[in-house]
Amino acid sequence: MNTSVRVVIASVLSRRIVTRPFHVRKIQKSFFATSSEDGSSGPPVDSAGSQRISFSESLRKMRENSSSQKENTVLGSSSSDSSDSSDSSDEEILLHGKTGHGDFSSRSSKPVVRSEDMLRTTESDPSHHTVDQEGLYYTVSNDDQKLYFPNFINPFLREQTDAFGELSLMIRKPALEIIDIIKNSSYNCPLPKFIIYGPRGVGKTCTLNHVMHYCGKQKHMLLHIPWVKDWTKFHTSSTPSLTKPGFTNLPEQANSWISYFAAMNAPLIKELKVTKNIEWTKKEVTEEGSPLKSLLDFGVLRQKYSDDVVDVLLDEVMIHASNNKFKVLVAIDGLNGFYKPSTVREPLEKHIFIHAEKLRLVDSFKRLLNSGNKNIVAVCTVSEEINQQNEREKFTPLYLLGKEAFQELEPIIPIHVGNYTEKEVNNCLDHYEEKKWLQNPAAKTDLGHQQIKFLTNNNPFAISRICGAN
Fold first, then answer.
1. pTM over 0.90
2. At a CB cut-off of 8 Å and minimum separation 6, what does 77 contact?
3. Of 416, 437, 454, which closes a domain?
4. 170 forms bridges with which residues in the sheet?
5. Which of 224, 452, 244, 216 is nearest to 359 (CA)?
């Protein structure tokens, strides 16, 4: 084997791949660089004196060496037989990792080409998704995006959606499992709570989005909290609750959530009526039989009462659900934040931080989760990011929620989300190439794909960041 090829491969194995971390938010375009030890002049050298060669340059040299070897074979070079024995030891470098991502012998520098049918499905309705479509992408229609997805997706997926001009979600097994259980469940009795868990960046929120899309298409009323930490982090607008002593209001957050709820569930709330008289002040009363929309309008216009409006609204939702008017999906991203200390300060004693359980918004949703009403299903995620730095050793629901919270939420169905499977990661990389998210020509080859898989361990978020940086 040619010496330059050996150097490139040894360098890839020993220095760049092994030492480069994948859990970074921004990865430089030079991450695909390798090093050479021949000491020749040209590109800059590192501290050890080895020459750095770009990944694309190394592939070019490998292709040139491969073509020259083919010419020698065609011409019947007499030196080929003698070189076989000398190269046999070098080939061990290629054969040393015959399993997983270490199998360099089967890799090709040619661009990867797969058919469109292997990448996506034309079925955009989640209720028709099956196991046969696992690993494929489906495109959310523009109408569904406007109705169901204004705040569904996290900022990173939003960034891709804006760049691609469409919202595509991958059909994965965890979402299919939840949808299948919901399809076959009886809503006439209290349903277990689905807790989606897994390491950071594996796609827990996207799994929740897929389930929410399904429930939205099935005319469920959606009660969604996009990210609990937005409620439990520092807020200067916190005020003492006048209707529930010892609790704290977050008027701005409550006001925003009411608007979000009204926009997402507009078709369902048109015909709903308030079931009881609600007295806010001596002059301001929401009368029984008035449209539910009037209650929402009051909460938006009178921010001072927004937390109380959310509490009353959830009561109204439970009453109408019990009367079989509709089914309800409670979707909470970062549920463990409900059971942890917050960074919100006591309104009257700024040196004291409030526990999340003492926030009026959190208390209202906890009451809904534990109501045991029929026609209500809860699908939530737990995340390490919510917990404090010293409480992130594991990502399991029991650890992140704590024993008391876990017992309070039972019955629970834990749904694990892991890194991409081989089919999923291949489709993901092909999707990024198609949408020009992955542009480096060297990274588009089979060898480039294998290096990305190795660096990221098939973690969806890490793949997104690496591909977006090249």
1. no
2. none
3. 416
4. 137
5. 244
Task: Match 């709570």 to its residue by tokens.
Answer: 193
3-state DSSP assignment of residue 396: coil
The reply to whether 257 and 353 lie within a common domain is: yes
Query: Does any domain span residue 391?
Result: yes
Same domain, 307 and 277: yes
**CA–CA gap between residue 383 and residue 395 (Å, rounded):** 7
Distance between CA atoms of 259 and 269, rounded to whole angstroms?
13
Rounded to whole angstroms, the Cα distance separating 168 from 160 reads: 9
Same domain assignment for residues 395 and 441: no
- The residue among 333, 293, 322, 326 whose CA lies nearest residue 309 is 293
- The Cα–Cα gap between 447 and 453 comes to 10
Same domain, 48 and 192: no
Which CATH number does the domain housing residue 389 bear? 3.40.50
Dump pLDDT digits (tens) for 32-66. Answer: 333 344 444 444 444 444 444 444 455 455 556 65
Number of domains, the chain: 2
Question: Judging by DSSP bridges, how do beta strands 353-355 and 341-345 pair with one another?
Answer: antiparallel
**Containing domain of residue 257, as a range?**
171-416
Q: What is the pLDDT of residues 418-456, one digit of tens each?
A: 999 999 999 999 999 999 999 889 999 999 999 999 999
Interatomic CA distance for residues 420 and 300, integer angstroms: 42
282 and 298 fall within a common domain: yes
